[in-house]
Amino acid sequence: MLGDDPSSLSLSSSFNEFNNSSLQDTQVFENVSFVDGLLESGETIKELTNAWMNERNSPELLTYKGYLVNELVEQLDYQVNRILETPMTSHQDKLNSMLYQNEIERIKFIIKSYLRTRLHKIEQCTLDLLRNQDIEELMSEKELIYARNYQKLVEQHNHDSFLHTLPERQHKQDERSGDLNMVVTSNLEAPVFIKVLENSGNVQLARDEMVMFEKDDIFILRYADIRSLLLSGAVRLL
Fold this sequence. Notes:
This is DNA replication complex GINS protein SLD5. The protein has 238 residues and is mainly alpha-helical.
């Protein structure tokens, strides 16, 4: 089994660093007071939430928003340390600390879900992604290491399980014959729900169809038709 290979432990290093940080201790507060900072970072949180929703609902792996993740993780660590170091002196302080704890947990959930969603997509289409010429712009350094190690484990697992019993000419795991392709790719024809974020005028879809995109409109369309608008930030996925 893939999970039984000791080398597979390294694949979760991105999560382990986050899970083992001081952010895990936010439920145990004995000395808490009102602190400023985290809840004022609304725009960064909003951007990451949009990136998370887009990633969850997109059929393909989108560009990693590392600058958002790193900024929020730094702010979370700072906020946790401030809370732990500040003495609690009143009932209002207790209430404020509870609000901050809830906000911290909410942001942690979004970050972890965002990373898990990306890792799931990487596992689904590893070989196809590794062939992408823009892979270093698409993934973080740790995600790229994860993808390469994961693909090695899959190939080794397949070889040990059954490929070694077949003739050598049948050992390839990336062959394509007609419409049959052994490499799993993203389904860009999948339908998606979108919300228009800015007026884009008439947008040409497949078969020369035209649709008027006005701010706050909601549509269900093929992902391939709105992909460029998503990447430019004109729409977001729901």
